Amino acid sequence: MFGLLIVFALLFVPISANQACDNCKLLFNFAYQFGIRGALQNMDKFKGFYNNECQYFERQIDGAVGKFCFELYSKNQHKLLSDFKAVTPVGIMCTDLKQC
Questions:
Q1: 71, part of any domain
Q2: Three-state secondary structure of the chain
């Protein structure tokens, strides 16, 4: 029984990590595509943008992705604001945040 639990855990970890990476890239690509550049003047505009983005994902796409979105942005908002200003590639941003 314990052996099955370990095998399941080992199989589940890569799937979870890969899903976090996919979600991260999805959110940041969406932000670049849908106007993040206009929301980078100050933190209030940036918060407004990502709140709208996360609400959209939570209500229209997938509630779990929306919650992931809120958590990712709120924990890393200062770094993400500077990364978006620098037009950092999505893959690098997600790797730096240890999502990939």
A1: yes
A2: CHHHHHHHHHHHHHHHHHHHHHHHHHHHHHHHHCCHHHHCCCHHHHHHHHHHHHHHHHHHHCHHHHHHHHHHHHHCHHHHHHHHHCCCCHHHHHHHCCCC
- For 21-80, what is each residue's pLDDT tens digit? 999 999 999 999 988 988 999 999 999 999 999 999 999 999 999 999 999 999 999 999
Q: Evaluate whether residue 30 is within a structural domain.
A: yes
> Does 10 fall in a domain?
no
Range of the domain at 83: 17-96
Who contacts 28 (Cβ-Cβ below 8 Å, separation ≥6)? 90, 93, 94
Taking the C-alpha atoms of residue 91 and residue 97, their distance in angstroms, rounded to an integer, is 10
